[in-house]
Amino acid sequence: MSALISAEALAACFDSVIVLDVQWTLGGPPGIEDYQRAHLPGAVYVDLDSELAGPPGGGRGRHPLPDPEVLEGALRRSGVDDGSAVVVYDAQTSMSAARAWWLLRWAGLSDVRVLDGGLAAWRAAGLAVETGPQPERPSGSVVVRPGSLPVLSAADVLGAAAAGVLMDARASERYRGEVEPIDPVAGHIPGAVSAPTTENLDADGRFLPAARLRERFAAYGIGPGTAVATYCGSGVTAAHEALALHEAGIEAVLYPGSWSEWVSDPARPVATGPTP
């Protein structure tokens, strides 16, 4: 079943879902500022850096998995119960929304969807937005169950590349090691293939149709039953790759620590250039 929902379909079931705003920009101002400028009516803001990730550093990367109690608190504040249907969205490209989609499923929620095209798609459909502070919702009772999705540790990654396909979701120039604007070492994990997440989207920031995504991944030798793992710089766009693969009918395992964790240990090998 698709994990995406259109603006029109969301509007039709709006009263039966909990909507979470996860607008976020790498290195940009706090996403709450974008939320306050415009958000879906009744949506609750959840912060990617502090609630959908743990503190950076300590050899765990820039966006390690959050403390389950912190995540549970954020979800309860948003009114989420164990059986809630949740829709997450960001400004347009679903990069941070995909992180929320993956993380909530890792935490044990089963009904989580992403607003395809985000806030931009909602506004393009002529639907109303709100401004200002967050609404107060009745507290939810969800119990976070971490580990409900499998993950890779750094010790697993090279084996995953050898046994299947390890996808690097970053921009291709970062994969090749030509530039590295964020992390201290340039390059990629040996054995990984370059598969930038920008190629999952159309010009409006919406996901390509499932058939197009299947064609894209087939070019990497990926189809139903292929063992696939994804990583990026810090585990955000890797979730976007996992969502695109899900739409193509392929389930991937995420390496949450990603490149920022990998290069924290100088003993781990690094490759450069255009090939695995």
What does the model show?
The chain is of the alpha/beta class and 276 residues long. It has two domains: 4-124, Rhodanese-like domain (Oxidized Rhodanese, domain 1), CATH 3.40.250; 154-262, Rhodanese-like domain (Oxidized Rhodanese, domain 1), CATH 3.40.250. The chain is 30% helix and 10% strand. The chain is built from ten helices and nine strands. It has helices at residues 7-12, 31-37, 68-77, 95-106, 118-124, 154-163, 172-176, 210-218, 237-247, 258-262; strands spanning 4-5, 18-21, 44-45, 86-89, 112-115, 165-168, 193-194, 228-231, 253-254. The strands form two sheets. The chain has a five-stranded parallel β-sheet. The longest helix has 12 residues, at 95-106. The protein starts with a strand and ends in a 14-residue tail after the last helix. The relative contact order is 0.17. The mean pLDDT is 97.
What keyword list fits this structure?
single chain, 276 residues, alpha/beta, Oxidized Rhodanese, domain 1, 2 domains, five-stranded parallel β-sheet, four-stranded parallel β-sheet, 10 helices
Strand order within the widest beta sheet: 1-5-4-2-3
Q: What's the CATH class of the largest domain, please? A: Alpha Beta
Q: How many DSSP helices?
A: 10
Count the beta strands.
Answer: 9
User: Hey, roughly how much beta strand do the residues contain?
Assistant: 5-15%
Q: What's the CATH H-level superfamily name of the largest domain?
A: Rhodanese-like domain
The description of the largest β-sheet is:
5 strands, parallel
C-alpha geometry:
globular
Would you tell me the overall average pLDDT? 97
The CATH topology annotation of the largest domain reads as Oxidized Rhodanese, domain 1
The number of distinct structural domains comes to 2
Q: What is the N-to-C order of secondary-structure elements (H for helix, E for strand)?
A: EHEHEHEHEHHEHEHEHEH
**Helix fraction by DSSP (H/I, runs of at least 4):** 25-40%
CATH arch. level architecture of the largest domain: 3-Layer(aba) Sandwich
Stretches where pLDDT is under 50 for at least 5 consecutive residues are none
Estimated radius of gyration: 18 Å
